[in-house]
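Batch manifest, entry 17 of 40.
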Amino acid sequence: TLREPLRVSAKTAEKVQLAIKQLGYAPNKSAGLLASGRSRIVAALVPNIANSIFAETIQGLSDALQADGLELLLAATGYSLAREEDQIRAVLGWAPSALVVTGRHHSDASVLMMRQAKAQGVPVIEMWDQTPGRAEFIQIGFNHGKAGRAMFEHLSQCGYQQIVFVESSVVGDLRAHERRQGFVAAGAKAGKQIRVVKAPQGEPMAAGRKVLQGLIDARALPEVLAFSNDYFAAGACLQALEQGIAIPAQLGIMGFGDMPIAGQIMGGLSTLAVPRYGIGLSTGQRVLAEIANDRNANVVATDRSALSPAS
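Output type: C-alpha coordinates
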Protein backbone atom coordinates (compact mmCIF):
# COMPACT_ATOMS: atom_id res chain seq x y z
CA THR A 1 0.00 0.00 0.00
CA LEU A 2 2.78 2.44 0.85
CA ARG A 3 5.19 1.60 -1.95
CA GLU A 4 2.76 0.99 -4.85
CA PRO A 5 -0.67 2.35 -3.84
CA LEU A 6 -2.15 1.96 -7.33
CA ARG A 7 -1.79 -1.83 -7.06
CA VAL A 8 -4.01 -2.02 -3.95
CA SER A 9 -7.81 -1.85 -3.93
CA ALA A 10 -9.41 1.19 -2.37
CA LYS A 11 -11.02 -0.96 0.37
CA THR A 12 -7.72 -2.57 1.35
CA ALA A 13 -5.88 0.75 1.23
CA GLU A 14 -8.46 2.29 3.56
CA LYS A 15 -7.94 -0.50 6.13
CA VAL A 16 -4.15 -0.15 5.95
CA GLN A 17 -4.29 3.62 6.32
CA LEU A 18 -6.60 3.28 9.32
CA ALA A 19 -4.14 0.86 10.96
CA ILE A 20 -1.28 3.27 10.24
CA LYS A 21 -3.11 6.10 12.02
CA GLN A 22 -4.07 3.93 14.99
CA LEU A 23 -0.51 2.66 15.46
CA GLY A 24 1.20 5.99 14.77
CA TYR A 25 3.35 4.18 12.22
CA ALA A 26 5.92 6.08 10.13
CA PRO A 27 7.75 4.06 7.43
CA ASN A 28 11.54 3.89 7.54
CA LYS A 29 12.54 5.60 4.32
CA SER A 30 16.20 4.65 4.69
CA ALA A 31 15.31 0.96 4.93
CA GLY A 32 13.07 1.27 1.88
CA LEU A 33 15.90 2.95 -0.03
CA LEU A 34 18.30 0.13 0.87
CA ALA A 35 15.78 -2.47 -0.25
CA SER A 36 14.83 -0.88 -3.57
CA GLY A 37 17.85 1.26 -4.45
CA ARG A 38 15.49 4.14 -5.24
CA SER A 39 13.64 6.54 -2.94
CA ARG A 40 9.99 7.57 -3.29
CA ILE A 41 11.10 11.14 -3.90
CA VAL A 42 10.98 13.18 -7.10
CA ALA A 43 13.54 16.00 -7.05
CA ALA A 44 12.45 19.23 -8.75
CA LEU A 45 14.60 22.32 -9.30
CA VAL A 46 12.91 25.63 -10.13
CA PRO A 47 14.38 29.15 -10.40
CA ASN A 48 12.11 30.79 -7.84
CA ILE A 49 9.59 29.32 -5.41
CA ALA A 50 7.94 32.68 -4.65
CA ASN A 51 7.11 33.41 -8.30
CA SER A 52 3.49 32.43 -9.00
CA ILE A 53 4.44 31.05 -12.43
CA PHE A 54 6.54 28.33 -10.84
CA ALA A 55 4.31 27.99 -7.77
CA GLU A 56 1.43 26.83 -9.95
CA THR A 57 3.73 24.50 -11.87
CA ILE A 58 4.93 22.96 -8.60
CA GLN A 59 1.32 22.46 -7.52
CA GLY A 60 0.49 20.67 -10.77
CA LEU A 61 3.55 18.46 -10.40
CA SER A 62 2.69 17.62 -6.79
CA ASP A 63 -0.94 16.83 -7.66
CA ALA A 64 0.14 14.36 -10.34
CA LEU A 65 2.73 12.61 -8.17
CA GLN A 66 0.34 12.04 -5.26
CA ALA A 67 -1.52 9.48 -7.36
CA ASP A 68 1.45 7.11 -6.95
CA GLY A 69 2.45 8.09 -3.43
CA LEU A 70 5.53 10.01 -4.56
CA GLU A 71 6.72 13.05 -2.63
CA LEU A 72 8.37 16.20 -3.96
CA LEU A 73 11.86 17.35 -2.96
CA LEU A 74 12.08 21.00 -4.01
CA ALA A 75 15.02 23.37 -4.48
CA ALA A 76 15.29 26.92 -5.85
CA THR A 77 18.25 27.68 -8.11
CA GLY A 78 17.91 31.46 -8.05
CA TYR A 79 18.57 31.44 -11.82
CA SER A 80 22.16 30.33 -11.11
CA LEU A 81 23.67 27.50 -13.18
CA ALA A 82 26.36 26.98 -10.53
CA ARG A 83 23.77 26.65 -7.79
CA GLU A 84 21.74 24.29 -9.94
CA GLU A 85 24.83 22.13 -10.38
CA ASP A 86 25.32 21.88 -6.60
CA GLN A 87 21.66 21.06 -6.09
CA ILE A 88 21.60 18.33 -8.75
CA ARG A 89 24.62 16.75 -7.09
CA ALA A 90 22.89 16.94 -3.69
CA VAL A 91 19.48 15.58 -4.71
CA LEU A 92 20.92 12.71 -6.76
CA GLY A 93 22.54 11.56 -3.53
CA TRP A 94 19.03 10.78 -2.27
CA ALA A 95 18.48 8.35 -5.18
CA PRO A 96 15.30 10.06 -6.44
CA SER A 97 12.75 8.24 -8.57
CA ALA A 98 13.01 11.10 -11.08
CA LEU A 99 14.84 14.39 -11.62
CA VAL A 100 12.97 17.45 -12.88
CA VAL A 101 14.86 20.61 -13.82
CA THR A 102 13.68 23.92 -15.26
CA GLY A 103 14.89 24.87 -18.72
CA ARG A 104 17.46 23.37 -21.05
CA HIS A 105 20.50 25.48 -20.11
CA HIS A 106 22.86 23.81 -17.62
CA SER A 107 26.56 23.70 -16.74
CA ASP A 108 28.67 20.96 -18.32
CA ALA A 109 28.91 19.17 -14.97
CA SER A 110 25.13 19.28 -14.55
CA VAL A 111 24.58 17.78 -17.99
CA LEU A 112 27.04 15.00 -17.19
CA MET A 113 25.19 14.16 -13.95
CA MET A 114 21.85 14.24 -15.77
CA ARG A 115 23.22 11.86 -18.41
CA GLN A 116 24.48 9.49 -15.73
CA ALA A 117 21.11 9.57 -13.95
CA LYS A 118 19.32 8.84 -17.22
CA ALA A 119 21.69 5.94 -17.94
CA GLN A 120 20.87 4.50 -14.50
CA GLY A 121 17.14 4.50 -15.28
CA VAL A 122 16.20 7.75 -13.53
CA PRO A 123 13.78 9.78 -15.69
CA VAL A 124 15.20 13.26 -16.34
CA ILE A 125 12.76 15.95 -17.47
CA GLU A 126 13.41 19.54 -18.52
CA MET A 127 10.22 21.55 -18.04
CA TRP A 128 9.27 25.06 -19.12
CA ASP A 129 11.36 24.82 -22.28
CA GLN A 130 11.53 23.19 -25.68
CA THR A 131 14.50 22.80 -27.99
CA PRO A 132 13.93 23.15 -31.73
CA GLY A 133 14.83 19.74 -33.11
CA ARG A 134 15.88 16.71 -31.12
CA ALA A 135 16.40 17.06 -27.34
CA GLU A 136 18.67 14.88 -25.22
CA PHE A 137 16.23 14.75 -22.30
CA ILE A 138 12.44 14.70 -22.06
CA GLN A 139 11.10 18.24 -22.45
CA ILE A 140 7.68 19.53 -21.42
CA GLY A 141 7.12 23.18 -22.20
CA PHE A 142 7.32 25.64 -25.08
CA ASN A 143 9.87 27.54 -27.14
CA HIS A 144 10.51 30.99 -25.65
CA GLY A 145 11.85 32.46 -28.87
CA LYS A 146 8.53 31.64 -30.53
CA ALA A 147 6.69 33.16 -27.57
CA GLY A 148 8.58 36.43 -28.10
CA ARG A 149 7.71 36.38 -31.79
CA ALA A 150 4.05 35.82 -30.96
CA MET A 151 4.09 38.87 -28.67
CA PHE A 152 5.53 41.08 -31.42
CA GLU A 153 3.11 39.78 -34.04
CA HIS A 154 0.15 40.65 -31.80
CA LEU A 155 1.36 44.22 -31.27
CA SER A 156 2.17 44.60 -34.96
CA GLN A 157 -1.34 43.49 -35.89
CA CYS A 158 -2.65 46.16 -33.50
CA GLY A 159 -0.83 48.76 -35.63
CA TYR A 160 1.89 49.85 -33.19
CA GLN A 161 5.03 51.32 -34.75
CA GLN A 162 7.10 52.65 -31.83
CA ILE A 163 7.74 49.63 -29.62
CA VAL A 164 9.96 49.21 -26.55
CA PHE A 165 10.68 45.77 -25.09
CA VAL A 166 11.49 45.70 -21.36
CA GLU A 167 13.43 42.60 -20.34
CA SER A 168 14.61 41.12 -17.06
CA SER A 169 18.00 42.25 -15.79
CA VAL A 170 18.59 38.86 -14.12
CA VAL A 171 21.53 37.42 -16.07
CA GLY A 172 20.48 33.82 -15.45
CA ASP A 173 16.89 34.31 -16.62
CA LEU A 174 17.82 32.81 -19.99
CA ARG A 175 14.25 32.03 -21.04
CA ALA A 176 13.25 35.69 -20.64
CA HIS A 177 16.28 36.70 -22.75
CA GLU A 178 15.20 34.23 -25.44
CA ARG A 179 11.76 35.85 -25.51
CA ARG A 180 13.44 39.23 -26.04
CA GLN A 181 15.59 37.77 -28.84
CA GLY A 182 12.52 36.31 -30.54
CA PHE A 183 10.65 39.60 -30.17
CA VAL A 184 13.49 41.71 -31.60
CA ALA A 185 14.15 39.25 -34.44
CA ALA A 186 10.47 39.33 -35.44
CA GLY A 187 10.56 43.12 -35.39
CA ALA A 188 13.66 43.22 -37.59
CA LYS A 189 12.03 40.84 -40.06
CA ALA A 190 9.05 43.19 -40.24
CA GLY A 191 11.31 46.19 -40.79
CA LYS A 192 10.85 47.63 -37.29
CA GLN A 193 13.71 48.52 -34.97
CA ILE A 194 12.81 47.49 -31.43
CA ARG A 195 14.33 49.44 -28.57
CA VAL A 196 15.29 47.25 -25.60
CA VAL A 197 15.30 48.52 -22.00
CA LYS A 198 16.43 46.49 -18.99
CA ALA A 199 14.25 46.58 -15.90
CA PRO A 200 16.20 47.48 -12.74
CA GLN A 201 16.95 44.87 -10.09
CA GLY A 202 14.47 44.48 -7.27
CA GLU A 203 10.80 43.73 -6.76
CA PRO A 204 9.28 43.31 -10.26
CA MET A 205 6.27 45.63 -9.88
CA ALA A 206 8.45 48.38 -8.44
CA ALA A 207 10.88 47.81 -11.31
CA GLY A 208 8.06 48.20 -13.82
CA ARG A 209 7.08 51.50 -12.22
CA LYS A 210 10.67 52.76 -12.46
CA VAL A 211 10.94 51.82 -16.13
CA LEU A 212 7.86 53.79 -17.08
CA GLN A 213 8.82 56.82 -14.96
CA GLY A 214 12.28 56.82 -16.51
CA LEU A 215 10.81 56.90 -20.01
CA ILE A 216 8.44 59.72 -18.98
CA ASP A 217 11.30 61.75 -17.48
CA ALA A 218 13.41 61.23 -20.62
CA ARG A 219 10.45 62.21 -22.83
CA ALA A 220 10.95 58.90 -24.63
CA LEU A 221 7.55 57.31 -24.17
CA PRO A 222 6.79 54.91 -27.08
CA GLU A 223 3.40 53.85 -28.41
CA VAL A 224 3.59 50.51 -26.59
CA LEU A 225 5.69 48.74 -23.97
CA ALA A 226 6.15 44.96 -24.06
CA PHE A 227 7.39 43.44 -20.80
CA SER A 228 9.08 40.09 -20.20
CA ASN A 229 6.54 39.26 -17.48
CA ASP A 230 3.20 40.44 -16.11
CA TYR A 231 4.60 41.79 -12.83
CA PHE A 232 6.75 44.35 -14.63
CA ALA A 233 3.75 45.25 -16.80
CA ALA A 234 1.41 45.56 -13.81
CA GLY A 235 3.82 47.96 -12.10
CA ALA A 236 3.97 50.10 -15.24
CA CYS A 237 0.16 50.15 -15.40
CA LEU A 238 -0.06 51.42 -11.82
CA GLN A 239 2.55 54.09 -12.52
CA ALA A 240 0.66 55.16 -15.64
CA LEU A 241 -2.52 55.47 -13.57
CA GLU A 242 -0.75 57.74 -11.08
CA GLN A 243 0.67 59.87 -13.91
CA GLY A 244 -2.69 60.23 -15.64
CA ILE A 245 -1.65 58.24 -18.72
CA ALA A 246 -4.59 56.43 -20.30
CA ILE A 247 -4.07 52.74 -21.09
CA PRO A 248 -4.30 51.84 -23.98
CA ALA A 249 -5.41 55.15 -25.51
CA GLN A 250 -2.11 56.91 -24.80
CA LEU A 251 0.14 53.95 -24.11
CA GLY A 252 -0.18 50.25 -24.90
CA ILE A 253 1.19 47.78 -22.34
CA MET A 254 1.69 44.04 -22.79
CA GLY A 255 3.02 41.40 -20.40
CA PHE A 256 3.81 37.70 -20.42
CA GLY A 257 2.49 34.77 -18.39
CA ASP A 258 -1.22 35.54 -17.90
CA MET A 259 -0.68 35.68 -14.14
CA PRO A 260 -3.66 36.34 -11.82
CA ILE A 261 -2.81 40.03 -11.50
CA ALA A 262 -3.09 40.45 -15.28
CA GLY A 263 -6.85 40.03 -15.09
CA GLN A 264 -7.23 42.64 -12.34
CA ILE A 265 -5.20 45.58 -13.68
CA MET A 266 -7.23 48.27 -15.47
CA GLY A 267 -9.88 45.83 -16.60
CA GLY A 268 -7.38 43.31 -17.95
CA LEU A 269 -3.78 43.45 -19.11
CA SER A 270 -2.78 42.28 -22.58
CA THR A 271 -0.59 39.22 -22.03
CA LEU A 272 0.53 35.91 -23.49
CA ALA A 273 -1.02 32.96 -21.66
CA VAL A 274 1.06 29.90 -20.80
CA PRO A 275 -0.20 26.67 -19.13
CA ARG A 276 1.57 27.13 -15.78
CA TYR A 277 -0.33 24.43 -13.88
CA GLY A 278 -0.60 22.19 -16.94
CA ILE A 279 3.17 22.07 -17.42
CA GLY A 280 3.57 20.76 -13.87
CA LEU A 281 0.70 18.29 -14.21
CA SER A 282 2.00 16.93 -17.53
CA THR A 283 5.51 16.66 -16.08
CA GLY A 284 4.21 14.64 -13.13
CA GLN A 285 2.17 12.38 -15.38
CA ARG A 286 5.22 11.76 -17.57
CA VAL A 287 7.28 10.90 -14.47
CA LEU A 288 4.67 8.31 -13.46
CA ALA A 289 4.61 6.87 -16.98
CA GLU A 290 8.40 6.57 -17.11
CA ILE A 291 8.50 4.89 -13.68
CA ALA A 292 5.74 2.48 -14.72
CA ASN A 293 7.60 1.60 -17.93
CA ASP A 294 10.76 0.91 -15.94
CA ARG A 295 8.81 -1.18 -13.43
CA ASN A 296 7.18 -3.25 -16.18
CA ALA A 297 10.53 -3.77 -17.90
CA ASN A 298 11.97 -5.10 -14.65
CA VAL A 299 9.02 -7.48 -14.23
CA VAL A 300 9.52 -8.84 -17.75
CA ALA A 301 13.25 -9.27 -17.14
CA THR A 302 12.53 -11.13 -13.90
CA ASP A 303 10.00 -13.43 -15.57
CA ARG A 304 12.43 -14.25 -18.38
CA SER A 305 15.22 -15.06 -15.97
CA ALA A 306 12.90 -17.38 -14.07
CA LEU A 307 12.26 -19.33 -17.26
CA SER A 308 15.95 -19.75 -18.03
CA PRO A 309 17.31 -23.28 -17.45
CA ALA A 310 19.50 -23.74 -14.39
CA SER A 311 23.22 -24.15 -15.00
